[in-house]
Structure formats: C-alpha cells, structure tokens
C-alpha cells in the first residue's frame, strides 16, 4: 500500500484510518486505528535482529527497510501491557512521522475507513489514565469501538530525543512586547509542553484549544470583539499554531477557514504536526499555511512565528 495512493483532498475535514486489531491470550480482540497519512507500508512479519540495550521490552529489534534504512519494531501489545501479539500471521505497520520511520507489530489489519473528524471523539480522562496516554481518540465504527493510538507518544516513550522541546541553551534578548498565540492540539501532553516552553521563552502569551473547532470558535469571538470595538484583529491575536490531526475540525480545514475569512486571513498560521513531510507540505501550502514544521521542532516554529508576526506588523 503506497501512501501516495490514499491521500485525501485538502480541507475536507476527513481522515482515513487504518484499523487493526490485537488478539490477546484470553481470546479478546481489541480494535485500534492509526491515521493513514502516517503509514508507509503494511507487510507480513519478517526476520528481525535484536538491538543492543533495548530501550523498552516492547522493542523486539530492527529490520532493514528501503534505502538501507534500519527500522525498529515495536510490539504494540507489549507496549499496552497485553502480553505480546498473538497471531499465526501477524502484520507489520511501517510508519513515518516526526521525520522517523517506526514499525508496529499487530495481530492483523482489518481495513481502511474514510471518516469525518466529527466522528472522532476525544478520550475521557479515565481512558487517558488507563491507557497511560497512549490513546489519542476514540471512533465508533460498525458497532465497535476503535481506539486511535497516539503513535507519537509511544515513540517518544522509546526515544525521549523525539519529544517536543526548545533549545534551553539559547540566550535571547526579551522582546519589547509579548505576542498572543492561539495554539490548537488535541494532545494534552503536547499542549502542556508547548504552553510551558513558549510562555517561558519570553516571546509569547499562549491561549490553547483542544481541537480545531474550539480554536475556530475562539477566533470568531476575537473577530466579533474586533468588529464591535473597531480595532484590528491583530490587536487581539498575532499568530496561530495548529496541529493537523484533531477531532471535530482538523488543522488543514481550520487553516482554510482562516485564510478564506476577510478579517482573519492575514494572521500567520503555522502547522505543527508529526505529519509534516515533503509529500504533505504541499497540502499545508494549498490551504494558505504560512509555515509548517514537523514535531518536535518547536524551536524552529517559535523562531518562524516570531519572524512572521514581526513582518505582519511592520
């Protein structure tokens, strides 16, 4: 399966989800999902080589992939504390996000579903706690519940170097004023990190939204406030940073809404997502995004947003 064959049209507020399952020793079958945009290939199980100093019991080893690339293989069942994949014919889901290739061993793959982000529900606090933060969303499909895995959180748990971070050693002069940034991301952990890092950088005051719909509603309020007081919208919000994958309204559609609005269109919008790659950057540009950065490069997007805001205010 080639990623280029399954890309959706831009700004339709839809996603395609690869549904897979994990069979447990007691006979229970759990259903899970991952965004097709992260999937490079689905293949059968293959020989792997053990890695020295395995970072986690769920890392089974590694195998050669394209261009001589060595890809680590994670047993999703072990990571979720379910004992390990049970299957006579398991599948490997090879992914690419955060500029990194990772493979996940699963019991089997069911199918690809095209759904609206409106069908995607945020997990409850209890589910987040039970899953250890490894579930990012819930979808009800054909009478069953499908848990959407937070693949970025799983990989970051294996390799902390892939976590969102700022350059703590950079020394910068504080600006004359702080800029108000609206940040939208459905991940609780990412929102917390981004807010802490950007606020502590001294450049920004950050307001956050749980998804694109909440961000859009906030922007409509700012717009109404600007119109009521006859002031520029740039007095209220100077920049927007948004994830792409979000329930209710995805980041690409949010960006399209902003750039099609006569009052909001000049606000710089930066896409900050694990999905950013050469093959997907054109999607961001097609909806008018001013910048796009792959997680975990928060320093890059912070610098670029500062540059865009200053240029916009000149």
Descriptive account of the structure:
The chain has 314 residues and is α/β, with parallel strands linked by helices. It contains eight helices and 16 strands. The protein has helices spanning 76-79, 125-130, 151-158, 188-200, 212-229, 251-260, 278-286, 298-313, and strands at 14-23, 29-35, 39-44, 59-64, 70-75, 91-97, 100-106, 108-116, 120-121, 135-141, 144-149, 179-184, 204-209, 239-242, 269-273, 291-294. The protein has a six-stranded mixed beta sheet, with no helix packed on it. The chain has a five-stranded mixed beta sheet with strand order 3-6-7-5-4. Helix 5 runs parallel beside helix 6. The relative contact order is 0.13. The model is unreliable at 1-8 (pLDDT under 50).
Provide keyphrases for this structure.
single chain; 314 residues; alpha/beta; 6-stranded mixed beta sheet; 5-stranded mixed beta sheet; 8 helices; 16 strands; disordered N terminus
């Amino acid at each position: 399966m080639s990623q280029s064959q399954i890309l959706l049209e831009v700004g339709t507020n839809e996603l395609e989800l690869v549904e897979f399952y994990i069979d447990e020793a007691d006979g229970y079958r759990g259903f899970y999902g991952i965004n097709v945009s992260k999937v490079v290939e689905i293949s059968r199980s293959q020989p792997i080589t053990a890695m020295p100093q395995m970072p986690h019991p769920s890392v089974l080893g590694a195998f050669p992939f394209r261009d001589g690339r060595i890809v680590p293989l994670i047993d999703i069942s072990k990571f979720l504390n379910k004992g390990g994949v049970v299957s006579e014919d398991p599948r490997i889901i090879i992914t690419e996000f955060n500029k990194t290739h990772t493979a996940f061993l699963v019991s089997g793959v069911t199918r690809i579903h095209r759904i609206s982000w409106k069908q995607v529900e945020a997990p409850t606090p209890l589910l987040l706690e039970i899953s250890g933060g490894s579930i990012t969303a819930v979808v009800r499909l054909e009478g069953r519940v499908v848990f959407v895995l937070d693949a970025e959180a799983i990989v970051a748990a294996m390799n902390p170097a892939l976590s969102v971070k700022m350059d703590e050693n950079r020394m910068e002069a504080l600006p004359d004023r702080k800029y108000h940034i609206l940040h939208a991301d459905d991940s609780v952990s990412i929102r917390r990190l981004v807010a802490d890092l950007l606020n502590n950088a001294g450049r920004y005051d950050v307001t956050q939204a749980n998804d694109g719909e909440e961000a859009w509603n906030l922007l409509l309020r700012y717009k109404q406030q600007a119109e009521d007081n006859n002031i520029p919208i740039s007095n209220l919000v100077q920049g927007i940073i948004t994830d792409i994958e979000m329930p209710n309204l995805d980041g690409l559609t949010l960006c399209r809404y902003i750039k099609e609005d006569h009052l909001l269109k000049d606000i710089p919008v930066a896409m900050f997502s694990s999905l950013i790659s050469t093959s997907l950057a054109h999607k961001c540009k097609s909806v008018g995004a001013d910048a796009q950065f792959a997680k975990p490069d928060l320093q890059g997007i912070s610098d670029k947003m500062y540059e865009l805001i200053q240029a916009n205010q000149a």
